[in-house]
Amino acid sequence: MQTRSDAGSMSNAELGELIGAFNEVTSRLQSSHEALRAEVSRLRGELSEANAQVARSQRLAALGEMAAGIAHEVRNPLGSIRLYARMLVQDLGDRPAERGLAERIDAATRTVDAIVQDVLTFSREFRVRRDVTEVSSLLTRVLESCQHDGVPGWKQVEVVRDVDEGLVVDCDQSLMHQAMVNVVRNAYEAMAECPGRRHELRVLARSGGDGVVLGVEDTGPGVSPEVEARMFNPFFTTRHTGTGLGLAIVHRIVDAHGGRIRVRNNQPGHGARVEIEIPAAAGTAGGQPARQEAVA
After folding, report:
1. pTM score, whole prediction
2. pLDDT tens, 17-66?
3. Same domain, 37 and 157
4. Same domain membership, residue 188 and residue 137
5. Chain centroid to CA 32: how far?
6. Where do the DSSP E strands lie in the chain?
């Protein structure tokens, strides 16, 4: 039996217990410190991403105002040119060569008018009229729209749906349909750049936190870091055709819904995934209808 050597001393067992307790507290403090550092790092990353989103939204809004002014200035004389071109087409019915030139002018004005319309769509203020929307039905309409619009190469692409049934979101159905159509069309066009191999378009929807994540994954060439940093900027495009406004419009629509958009590159040369996260519908949990409990 261990005893104290004097009234003021501590036994070896008591000293061991004290040291053990001290080491345990120190270990817990160290673990807590590491956890806090990791949490601070995560929060800093989220804050940086949020600030980047805000800055991008502000830049897009400023560019939208400028683009709207230019588009309106262009549209007025363009309308006159188009009117005169049509008059010439009618008046030159007996002169095929000259009539052909007038028809080419008319076709060119239609192309420019489509560009102006894209600019105005991008620059306008999006007034979101929210309604409870069933996600699976929305994505079905999106795919049908792209096929009916004659997206190049859609018949050679296998479409895979990975959609959780019963998901609902609180969104403007028309605007979200437009956004998803633009994303899907962009995926088809990316795959068209890689002919001669089997392609797959994967459309997914799942619960994500307090919202729903809609994703479109392609098997195209993928997205380089340089393109990823600029792909949502207006008028930026890597293709020979198009205005470069499709994904910029998507960004504005998602931003108007209070959502987020991300791009995840697959393995180099094997496609990319675009994810849109939007809030779940009110009265749902993670996009699933809330379960009703009977009250006696």
Report:
1. 0.63
2. 778 787 787 888 777 777 777 777 777 777 777 777 677 667 666 766 77
3. no
4. yes
5. 36
6. 131-134, 157-163, 168-171, 199-208, 211-217, 260-265, 272-279, 284-285, 288-289
